[in-house]
Design goal:
Largest sheet: 7 strands, mixed
Number of helices: 13
CATH superfamily of the largest domain: Type I PLP-dependent aspartate aminotransferase-like (Major domain)
Structural class: alpha/beta
Bound molecules: pyridoxal-5'-phosphate
Order of helices and strands: HHEHHEHEHEEEEHEEHEEEHHHEEHEEEH
Number of strands: 17
Strand content: 15-25%
Length: 404
């Protein structure tokens, strides 16, 4: 008789977005005349930029002709895309990453969930808290997190690095042994980030202790401040200790199109074994390449026109972020993020729990956000609003909260 991976049974249900959906559906049923404004899920709302759509059309036409048809893509990505990434995202930022250190994929969620296959079963994992839940859940599935304690919301074998207003959203370096550290910067959900000097300390720590950093830069396009690094490879020594994961979802609206990439530097070795070679082996075995049409769309992201259009799109969302942040701050709420990221992280008023505030906001203002406790124990007492909405909805939400 076969046996299942019992670690799946340890996972608490993914209640966050399904509970939100249920509560909203119930509210809409009870209040058919009230408009509900959704600033909860981190999905984009602007259409894909014209120059990218045009590149996709051209690629679609190529697929219809025998001479220009493309079958399986190279496992690691087409060189036209890997070269564009290396040039724009790295070399132009002074980071020495070559195209063959870039692995093109179907998105950052897959890569951030799959990367843990490279670690041994007994690796100790550290995560900043709160954080994008995939890092924890994928390690739970692999049996690295121990047991879940529902009362504290914590996994027994996971090292949590609290990142809250109490430490100004700058987590302390681990004070216990750990092997792999996940950093998501700019952070989902707090919308905060680290300066180059602060990140350098993490890189130095990792090199000194022999840790690996998994650096998720999905929101890099939203960085506006000069001293915030756009890639971990701006830090000295990062090529010896860090893997970087990137997405085209938030900078180019590819959430429904699917494209991402992971950088595994050739210098990165564990006891003489190259992680680059391991990831290449894994990618080649389990992934058959991102579609040609989508990789051509990705290439257009780096064209002069593509960059111009996407800068405008990012500016649109960041204007929403400003409206939310300044609107709520003006009402007396404590708000964080929203300067280098499209998320506003607010403290719930009157020490309310995240879920109580969710209910109050839905009933009082018809606005849907995301309870901070869904992102980890240190998210309790916080609430996330996204700047990815339409402008009119964002303005209406702020007005409704003001009236509430
Ligand atoms: N990484 C972070 C931190 C995210 O917040 C998200 C999506 O919300 C992803 C990765 C997923 O990116 P992708 O759409 O490329 O899978």
């Amino acid at each position: 008789m076969y046996r299942i991976n019992a670690n799946y049974g340890k996972l608490p249900g993914s209640y966050l977005f399904s509970t939100i959906a249920k509560k909203v559906a119930e509210f809409e049923k009870q209040n058919p005349d009230r408009k509900v404004i959704r600033l909860g899920i981190g999905d984009v709302t602007q259409p894909i930029a014209p120059s990218i759509i045009s590149a996709m059309h051209t690629a679609v036409d190529e697929m219809g002709l025998a001479e220009t048809f493309h079958g399986y893509a190279p496992d690691l990505g087409y060189s036209f895309l890997r070269e564009a990434i290396a040039e724009s995202d790295y070399r132009q930022r002074g980071a020495d990453i070559s195209p063959d250190e870039i692995f093109v994929s179907d998105g950052a969620k897959s890569d951030s969930g799959n990367i843990q296959e490279l670690f041994s079963a007994d690796c100790k994992i550290a995560v900043t808290d709160p954080v994008y839940p995939v890092y924890v859940d994928s390690n739970v599935m692999a049996g690295r997190c121990g047991d879940y304690d529902a009362a504290s919301g914590k996994w027994s074998d996971l090292l949590y690095l609290p990142t809250t207003a109490d430490n100004n959203f700058v987590p302390e370096l681990p004070d216990r042994e750990c092997d792999v550290i996940y950093l998501c910067l700019p952070n989902n959900p707090t919308g905060t980030t680290l300066t180059r000097d602060q990140l350098q300390k993490w890189v130095d720590f990792a090199n000194e202790k022999g840790c690996l950093i998994i650096y998720d830069g999905a929101y890099e396009a939203y960085i506006s401040e000069e001293d915030v690094p756009h890639t971990i490879y701006e830090c000295n020594g990062a090529k010896n200790c860090a893997i970087e994961i990137k997405s085209f979802s938030k900078n180019a609206g590819f959430t429904g199109v699917r494209l991402g990439y992971t950088v595994v530097p050739k210098e990165l070795k564990c006891e003489g074994v190259s992680l680059h070679d391991m990831w290449a082996r894994r990618h080649g075995t389990k992934f058959n390449g991102a579609p040609y049409i989508i990789q051509r769309a990705g290439e257009a992201v780096y064209s002069a026109q593509g960059k111009k259009e996407l800068k405008e799109q990012v500016a649109y969302y960041m204007e929403n972020a400003r409206l939310i942040r300044e609107g709520l701050t003006g009402m007396g709420y404590d708000c964080y993020g929203g300067v280098n990221a499209p998320y506003i992280w607010m403290k719930t008023p009157d020490n309310m729990t995240s879920w109580d505030f969710f209910d109050r906001l839905l009933e009082g203002a018809g606005v849907v956000g995301t309870p901070g406790s869904g992102f980890g124990p240190s998210g309790e007492g916080y609430f996330r609003l996204t700047a990815f909405g339409q402008r009119s909805n964002t303005e209406a939400a702020i007005e409704a909260i003001r009236k509430m």
